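Dear U.,

Please find below the material for section 3 of the report. The protein was modelled together with flavin mononucleotide; I have listed the sequence and SMILES used, followed by the predicted complex structure.
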Amino acid sequence: MQGGYQMNILAISGSLRSNSSNNAVINAAVTYFPPGVNVTIYDGLGRLPHFNDISDPSPEVIDLRNKIRQADGVLICSPEYAFGVPGSLKNALDWTVSSGEFVNKPLALVTAATGGQNAHAALLLIFTALSANLTPDTTLLISFIRTKMNTAGEVIDPTTLDNIHKVVAAFIGTIENTKKNE
Ligand SMILES: Cc1cc2nc3c(=O)[nH]c(=O)nc-3n(C[C@H](O)[C@H](O)[C@H](O)COP(=O)(O)O)c2cc1C
């Protein structure tokens, strides 16, 4: 790893489904991180309480906030449900508004759905509100995701894999630039 530091990435899927296509996108993305990059896949989305404006949040909320804070960058892969951002992901993001974990945080955002334009646009607005560090190069909309996967649940479409690879490369570049300026 350049710069001699350990890079830690937190990956969050906006889907709780066991055969999630967004989990498959994360699995594909993981293969493009350089050796030595540590990717942690967050598995607590379904255990978070519903957002409430309270001063003593539960251990699950503290754990989410700590994991985002400690990550050098966050990769989010989300589907679109009912023309919007899945409620479980939106709930997790709402827990970070006042505590500010996403402020200046390097972010890669992939929306993988049948269409996905609405959720992707909404997520871009949300992460602008949260002041995350994302650029057009670190965002990707994958429409018709199911047609880009095999029956084993892997992303196999070459163009899609190439686009995921490019997002990961730009994301790593953002993190390295951020580290240089620290
Ligand atoms: C409850 C539900 C609602 C959906 N609504 C939309 C939608 O509004 N727009 C869209 O593009 N896809 C929609 N889809 C299709 C999903 O985006 C698609 O199946 C995607 O692969 C799901 O991601 P996942 O496998 O990671 O859960 C919906 C799927 C489900 C299960």
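For the text of the report, you could mention the following: The mean pLDDT is 96.

Regards,
Y.
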